[in-house]
C-alpha cells in the first residue's frame, strides 16, 4: 500500500473517518471535507517535541496561588512599528503568523527583523521554501544585513527544518511560508490543510518547548482570508495581517489576534529602496495630500488598537447615468454605507435615489469602527450640497438608525490627536463631552457636541 498507515482522512464537518480520501462524506454528505490527519493510535512514542504538552512537569493540576508569574521579557525586533503591533516586542516562545498578499513585503519585514535580532539577541534561522539562499542574500544586501549571525535555509521539509533548529539553537525562527512546508509523514501536497496544520503544530511544540519565538509567513487567498485551515489562527498566539495597496508605498501591519497585546494594534511602514521604513506619525502621512476647499472631504479621528489616526474620508455623489444607482465603498464596509445612506435619506431629508455614491478612505486605509459613521455621512452630505467642511474641523461618532449620534470609546484620545495635528474644532457625540469640557476649549480645540445627524450637518456645513 502506498499510503502510510499512520494517517487517516477525517471529515472536517462531522468527524467521520476513512482510510482513503473521499470527495463526499458518506455520513454527513459534505463535499470536499476530508483532510489527512495523523491517526489517533499512530504508534507508541509521542512525536518529537511533544514535551510541550507536559512543559513544567505539571501533569497534575496545581493551585492557582502556587503558580509563579513568568515575566515575559520581550525582545525588540529593532523596528519600532513592528514592536508596537506585537504589543511591545516579541514574547519568548510565542508563535506569530504574518499573513498578506504576495509582494506586499512580508519577507522584507521579517528579514529586516531577523537581521536586527541576530545582532542584538542571538542567532536567527530564516527558513525559506520560496526563495534560494542567493535570492534572500541579494535582498539582504539592500537591507544592509551585514555580518550578523543569520542562518539561511532553503528547505521545505518540516523534519529537516526541525533538525536545523535543534542544531543551530537559534534565538528566533522564521518560516517563509507555512504553505510550502510539508511533513514526510503525510502524503498530501504542501499547502493542503492537513500539511499546514501538521507543520504549524510541530513548530508550536518546538517553539513552546524550547522557548524559541517563531514567525510563520502565511499566504492569503483571493478573498483575503489566510490560505489553509482557519484552525491555523487558533494554533498561533498572534495573527498579523499586512494591508495596503501595491500602488501606494505605505503598508499597514495589523494585529487581528494577540494573546500578548491589544488587537487591531497597527504599525505603519513605507516601502523604500532600503526596505520598510517605520512611519511614526501616520496621521501626517494620511492627511498629507488632502485637497483644500473641496466638497466631499471630511477628516475622521479613528482609533486603531491604542493608537489614534486621522484619516480623510472622501465622497463623491453624482447623477447616475444608468438605471440603477451605483454605491461603491473602498476602505469602509459596503453594507455600512448602504445603511448610512438610508439614514441620510430618511433622517436628514437628502434625496439620493438617482445618484451614484462613491466613498473612499484616502491613502488606501481600511476603517471598520462605527466611530467613522459621522465622517462618512458628513462627506456625502458635503458632496450633495456642494458645501465645504472647514479644513480645520475633525469629527467622529457612531450613527444609529433613528439618526441619533451615539457616544463611542476613547473620545479624549481622538481629541488629543486632533489637537496635536492642529485641528481647531471637533464635532463629536454630545454624550462624549464631559460637563467641564462642554462648549469649552480643550487646548485650542473647540468641542462641539451633537445629538442627531441633522445637528451634526448644521454644525459642519453651516
Ligand atoms: P516581499 O517582501 O518579497 O513580499 P512578500 O514576501 O510579501 O511576497 O516584497 C517584495 C516587494 O517589495 C517587491 O515588489 C519589491 C519591493 N521591495 C522594495 O521596494 N524595496 C526593498 O528594499 C525590498 C527588499 C523590496
Ligand atoms: Mg515572500
Task: Give your account of this protein's structure.
This protein is an alpha/beta fold. It folds into three domains: 32 residues; 207 residues, Rossmann fold (3-Layer(aba) Sandwich); 177 residues, Ribosomal Protein S5, domain 2, CATH 3.30.230. Helix content is 25%, strand content 25%. Strand 11 and strand 12 form a beta hairpin. Helix 8 packs across helix 9 and helix 9 crosses helix 11. The mean pLDDT is 87. The site of magnesium ion (MG) has 4 residues, from helix 2.
Describe the secondary structure blueprint for this structure.
Layout: E1 7-11, E2 17-18, E3 34-38, H1 80-85, E4 95-100, H2 106-120, E5 124-128, H3 133-142, E6 150-154, H4 158-168, E7 172-176, H5 193-209, E8 214-219, H6 231-235, E9 238-243, E10 250-258, E11 266-272, E12 275-278, H7 282-287, E13 297-304, E14 307-319, E15 327-330, H8 334-348, E16 355-361, H9 373-385, E17 393-395, E18 398-399, E19 405-406, H10 411-420, E20 425-429, E21 441-442, E22 445-450, H11 453-460
Helix pairs in contact: 8-9, 9-11
Bound molecules: thymidine-5'-diphosphate and magnesium ion.
Residues 106-107, 130, 176 line the site of magnesium ion.
